[in-house]
Amino acid sequence: MADSGGGASLGRTICSIPEKFQLHISMLALQFGYAGFHVVSRAALNMGISKIVFPVYRNILAFLLLLPFAYFLEKKERPPITWNFIIQFFLLAIVGITANQGFYLLGLDNTSPTFASAIQNSVPAITFLMAVVLRIEKVRFDRKDGISKVAGTLFCVAGASVITLYKGPTIYSPTPPLHSSAAAVSSAATAAAAALQLPYLGDAKGKSWTLGCIFLIGHCLSWSAWLVLQAPILKKYPARLSFTSYQCFFGIIQFLVIAAFVERNPNAWLIHSGAELFSVFYAGIVASGIAFAVQIWCIDRGGPVFVAVYQPVQTLVVAIMTSVLLGEEFYLGGIIGAVLIITGLYLVLWGKSAERKFAALEKAAIQCPADHSGSRATPQIKSSITQPLLLSQSTENA
Prior knowledge:
The chain is mainly α. The chain has helices at 2-16, 19-46, 53-73, 83-110, 113-120, 123-133, 144-165, 177-184, 188-197, 209-236, 240-262, 274-302, 304-309, 311-326, 332-367, 374-384, 388-396; strands spanning 170-172, 330-331.
């Protein structure tokens, strides 16, 4: 009884917190969770975990976590599965799971967590550009919101190009804690143990920075295409947890097929240390399962623009974490590119916000009763029905 009373008291305390404050706390926690995923993934790659095995285990854990919630919570709203849905889920898994995660790991292995997170800030702008190309969204060059979105897209493209083509000199090069501690240890055995851990840390030296950035751009393109392509399918299949569970399932199958040709070493499927086990569980449970549920709630309550605004916070947290934990070096080209991308992100988000306000005004103008004469009402209605449906759709695809 005491436990149930304590649980009820905790529930009342949480409910008494304003929802807006809950949203901000949830988004901050989400960014810390994703930042940890960047660092943990890089540490796993440095420890030698396979870039094929890692996403297989990640998606298996995410699938097992989402499956019971999808089955029991979406019984009433889940449409019957058809071959058409299965094909669409399979194709979406190729874009949103296999290509997305595969390109990310290949890019991260050749660059660093900070710049991987920085390039991800271009996803809203790329999504907007794809929506325009596919005619899901229209651009109004005669309004500030249209000009802002186009300018933001150009800033993001410029930033990604700078990061890819210009690495630049080292701006900041911290000394990892284990390096300094290893030098100070007098015991030979302790020093040898610390030396075994040193290869796990540090930057992606000896690898192709440009190739890594190209892989990360492929990751952002895949992610953006996934956001654009899943929007029309979600309208026909609104059970979001089931929708994601199917994609995780097909993603597992696709990675297993790739592994059959690429990863033929049986030892690659073994977990060799507790650190590798932690990285796999963190990626599957925190970065995929829990993060997805929190993000869905934040999008539902705060909107996609509110969620996207917090993306640069993740880049800042990753920069601090990788500097302290991994001893990551910062380069001039990456910093310039990150500033351009984040500037472009906020220009696109401001344009989306202004577009939403303009759409609300147009909708109010349509619904407003004709208080004046018909001759005055007619031109007002005529100018307000230019693109009401497209505007409402575009806000969902951001």
